[in-house]
Amino acid sequence: MNNEISIKEDRTGNKVDYVIILYVLILGIISIASIYVAVEHDSSSTNLTSAILSQLIWYFLGFVFAFIIMHFDSQQLWSLAIYAYGVGILLLILVLFFYSRSYSINTGAKSWFAIGPLSFQPSEVMKPAYILMLAKVVSKHNYNYMLRTTKTDWLLLGKVTLLTLPILLLLKLQHDLGTSLVFMAIFIGVVFVSGITWKIVLPFALIGGSIGTTFLALAVKSPTVLKALGFSTYQFQRITSWLSNSDTNSNAAYQQLQSIKAIGSGQIWGKGFNVSNVYVPVRESDFIFSVIGENFGFVGSALLILIYFFLIYRMIQTVFETKNIFYAYIAIGIIMMLLFHIFENIGANTKLLPLTGIPLPFISQGGSALLSNMIGIGLILSMRFHYKNYMFAGKSDFK
After folding, report:
1. Nearest to 124 by CA among 186, 32, 198
2. Which single residue of 87, 174, 189, 345 has CA 20 to 30 Å from 307?
3. Where do the structural domains in the chain lie, given as residue ranges?
4. pLDDT band at 23 (very low <50, low <70, confident <90, very high)
5. What is the H or E stretch that residue 112 is in?
6. Pick from 375, 370, 179, 178: which is nearest to 284 by CA?
């Protein structure tokens, strides 16, 4: 028996999942239209043609990456996982020394490379790499310990925690709390479906909830404590502006209040395409949902959420059809990544959640985030393109 994963093929021919591609294309059209409205009406510093062209180029590159990754089967992805994770960690370290000074001044985070007009956020590349490695570790552990005990569950939790901590530490050094929350969402999603007993999961969930509540309380009552712990002023100012309706001094509070006005002004059917009467700063990125709400109202916003629902449902359906354990954990990670982005972005636009700088998947302007999402799409497309079932033969298959 060789040291690769033994797989029995059940193939009826390579299949491209055009349904998923269709949903992404629809989101792409919404993205271009929304960026057009946002930049034309609310941005005096961004060139309209450059903004549209840039997004089109990133979409093209994203589809190229998705097409390439689609041709990697589960064996190849399994082998590449450790290398992708290692490259991701290396990039997160390098950005601490070679980060863009101008982006750091504007965002407060040391998380961007910049070469001339081009900018790149390595943490976005780390997301799919982390998902791949997490899926490999969990599926390998669960095969090696088919007889589950509390001891083996603790061992699995320790493995995935050790895999996650270096990323969270590096993001902490970059002052990028929003991206850290995305990784935590992926971690939680995979752990919940990994089979770890609730006797372990529930206490950790309670501890996590307590820490979150304490953080909110300190942000409001004792911000100096958070400063002493290394948090930046702008991070807890976003919390206080979210909790307070009267605090309009911070940029985050002003953006959220303007976003609510724009969405509310759209009412049920919206004002119509390319109509914008409410100014929202930097609308083309984190507040792109306010464009949709103002132009197409509640109906248009609901239809957008419905498209996301169909996309994620199709991903889940693909996992059940392929019946591949490794792919299943990959899909859970990608779905959790997308769900967190969707809920957090829309929640921030409507002030149901604090602002964290999380973009709306496939719609917000930004190359790094779009590329990360398209890599995730490529991994999902690979599942149907390589229609195979796991047939594990022995522990040597997981070396």
Report:
1. 186
2. 189
3. 7-196+250-398
4. very high
5. none
6. 370
In sequence order, the 6+-apart residues with CB closer than 8 A to the CB of 16 are: 70, 381, 384, 385
Place of tokens 């029995």: 8
pLDDT tens per residue, range 250-287: 666 788 888 999 999 999 999 999 888 898 888 888 89
Q: What are phi and psi of 119, to 5 degrees?
A: -130, 155
Q: Is the pTM of this model over 0.85?
A: yes
Contact 289, 360 (CB under 8 A): yes
Coil, strand or helix: which one is 15?
Answer: coil
CA distances (Å), 250 to each of 103, 105, 234, in order?
19, 16, 9
Other CB atoms within 10 A of residue 274 CB: 12
Interacting residues of 102 by C-beta distance below 8 A, sequence separation 6+: 114
Cβ–Cβ under 8 Å, residues 59 and 394: no
The distance from CA 245 to its chain's CA centroid, rounded to whole angstroms, is: 28
